[in-house]
């Protein structure tokens, strides 16, 4: 009854399928781990380093491969660990994944071998009395039942052994594939910050629409009414007062438009390429734009790029004495890179940039840092000046 109860458990059959199927599914990852060990020995030569970097980059993708059968058979799931470096050779996440490819595969193969041994030997021993009855063996009739009892123990031990293998594999997963508690907390904070940035961008756009469609429209109407009063009245005092009020409304409209453009430039609604091209067209220094993107960046990223280019073009016109500017925006699977280059006199530096917080090169560096990006200025005396901003690619 105990044997039937254990073997009737659905959990046992799922764990058995996980271990036995792993003996087949982990052949590629074991080969990857063995190649990685060999590449470590060859890392003293350039070819070995290149091979090791490629293997580590490939190992970085294996957690999803391991997760599929674990989710299907065991209901086990885990988030991907974030890479700690863009260089595979210094990425601890890739090294841990490669270590799991080796240790986890050895565990599954050892567990699969002994599981088959327990099941095969136990089944054969349990059926030994029937064999003895057909073919008289060396044991007595009572001895055959002793062998059958040993077989029963082996079959009873098999599910617990498989469970031990699965438990050990879970420990390896938690230690090598899953992100640490600190990493999970960082990921939660980053997700929360991204949500706040998206909410802030949406709020700014909503305020911009309200100002444009509501306040600005009322000011335009007020200006028109004041102009009518100015032209219809015959009293000089009233006409002067209406004209002065109309000029005040016009100035308020101009300030309001500047505020609206500072919140969310309307040009961004048509995409970054058009927005940057419009900035280049208005630039005092001839500028060319090259944009190659795989998708449309989030509003926060697009605004950061737009305002960075606008600020840099203003700096070039005021201080660089340049005759040409090039703006290049490209992306990779993980990063978005903006490069602005001018042929001016050079000498620009983040620490020396004037202006209040949020303006100048220092403000641009803080804006990039707030988005987990980097901002670099390469501006030797005599030029050229190359400003590079990299931001995480989140699309």
UniProtKB/TrEMBL annotation:
Membrane among keywords: yes
InterPro entries assigned: HATPase_C_sf, HATPase_dom, Put_sensor_dom, Sensor_HK_TwoCompSys, Sig_transdc_His_kin_sub3_dim/P
Q: Name one GO cellular component term.
A: membrane
Q: Name one Pfam family in it.
A: HisKA_3
Q: Which GO terms describe its molecular function?
A: ATP binding; phosphorelay sensor kinase activity; protein dimerization activity
Asked if the Swiss-Prot or TrEMBL record annotates the protein with the keyword Transmembrane, the reply is yes
**Coiled-coil zones:** none
Q: What is the protein's given name?
A: histidine kinase
Originating species: Paractinoplanes tereljensis
């Amino acid at each position: 009854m105990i044997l039937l109860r254990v073997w009737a458990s659905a959990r046992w059959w799922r764990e058995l399928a996980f271990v036995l199927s792993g003996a087949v599914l982990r052949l590629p990852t074991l080969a990857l781990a063995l190649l990685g060990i060999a590449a470590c020995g060859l890392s003293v030569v350039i070819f070995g380093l290149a091979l090791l970097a490629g293997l580590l980059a490939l190992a970085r993708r294996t957690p999803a491969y391991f997760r599929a059968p674990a989710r299907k058979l065991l209901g086990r799931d885990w988030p991907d660990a974030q890479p700690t470096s863009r260089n595979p050779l210094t990425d601890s996440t890739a090294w841990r994944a490669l270590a799991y490819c080796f240790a986890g595969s050895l565990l599954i193969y050892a567990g699969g071998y002994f599981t088959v041994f327990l099941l095969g030997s136990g089944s054969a021993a349990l059926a030994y009395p029937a064999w003895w009855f057909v073919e008289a063996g060396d044991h007595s009739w009572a001895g055959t039942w002793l062998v059958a009892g040993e077989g029963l123990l082996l079959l009873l031990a098999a599910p617990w052994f498989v469970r031990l293998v699965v438990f050990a594999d879970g420990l390896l997963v938690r230690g090598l594939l899953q992100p640490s508690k600190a990493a999970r907390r960082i990921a939660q904070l980053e997700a929360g910050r991204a949500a706040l940035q998206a909410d802030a961008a949406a709020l700014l756009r909503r305020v911009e629409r309200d100002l444009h469609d509501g306040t600005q429209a009322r000011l335009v109407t007020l200006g028109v009414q004041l102009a009518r009063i100015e032209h219809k009245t015959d009293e000089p005092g009233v006409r002067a007062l209406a004209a002065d009020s109309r000029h005040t409304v016009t100035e308020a409209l101009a300030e309001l438009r500047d505020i609206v453009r500072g919140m969310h430039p309307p040009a961004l609604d048509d995409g970054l390429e058009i927005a940057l091209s419009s900035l280049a067209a208005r630039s005092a220094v001839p500028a060319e734009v090259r944009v190659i993107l795989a998708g449309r960046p989030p509003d926060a990223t697009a605004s950061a790029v737009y305002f960075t280019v606008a600020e840099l073009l203003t700096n070039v016109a005021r201080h660089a004495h340049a005759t040409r500017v090039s703006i290049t925006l490209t992306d990779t699977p993980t990063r978005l890179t903006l490069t602005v280059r001018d042929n001016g006199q050079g000498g620009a530096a983040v620490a020396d940039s004037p202006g209040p917080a949020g303006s100048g090169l220092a403000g641009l560096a803080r804006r990039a840092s707030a988005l987990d990006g980097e901002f670099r200025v390469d501006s030797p005396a005599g030029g050229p000046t190359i400003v590079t901003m990299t931001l995480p690619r989140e699309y």
